[in-house]
């Protein structure tokens, strides 16, 4: 009875999917975080939906959508437990400039080669899962870089190390940092990326993609995209985590 009542209360708080106010989205997701203790599956589905909806609104309501995503990020905490194994990914929206984001949305709607990430908590490392079609443009941009075939029509690329710390743009928040700055990655673009990941509700993570620019001695970082992760459906034939080195 208590769960049914919680569901009814939750429905009353649910924001308009097309034209919500940012505080309504924030209030709803905060309620989902409380609900996660009694009904984690409903909280997970609804939190993922709110992230997707914000990304869909970014084309028409850019300011509201980005503000809502930032509020959800700041509501969240360091993932607990830390991600381990395979996670399916979603590029929620780019956050470059008002003039360029529409172009990125069109391109990503036509071709999205990124599938998600693999984490290994033992080695605090991981990599990204890509479609085979990503190898062609990657060969043009990074001629000497090679993707790793991991089966099931997936390739692994762009290894990272992970660690917790204060957010770069959100200094008052703890995040899981996903750091690509290592010699095994291409020096152009990839090594300048730092992802920061938080857990909105159990099994739903929201991330910021931060791009380094400026002088190496005094670099700055700019938010260029939001992404989301959720555990992949278990598959015994898949490689659940990146190969350890």
Structure notes:
The chain has helices spanning 2-13, 22-35, 40-57, 62-75, 101-110, 135-141; strands at residues 85-94, 114-120, 125-130, 148-151, 154-166, 174-179, 193-201, 204-213, 220-231. The longest helix has 18 residues, at 40-57. The protein has two domains: 1-75, no CATH class; 78-236, Lipocalin (Beta Barrel). The chain has six helices and nine strands. The chain has an eight-stranded antiparallel beta barrel with strand order 1-2-3-5-6-7-8-9, surrounded by four helices. The chain has 245 residues and is of the alpha+beta class. Strand 2 and strand 3 (125-130) form a beta hairpin.
Give the tally of structural domains: 2
At the first level of CATH, what is the class of the largest domain? Mainly Beta
Shape descriptor reads: globular
How far is the first residue's CA from the last residue's CA?
51 Å
CATH architecture of the largest domain: Beta Barrel
Mean pLDDT across residues = 92
Instruction: Write out the strand line-up for the largest beta sheet, numbering strands in chain order.
Output: 1-2-3-5-6-7-8-9
**Can you tell me the CATH topology of the largest domain?**
Lipocalin
Task: Write the H/E string, N to C.
Answer: HHHHEHEEHEEEEEE
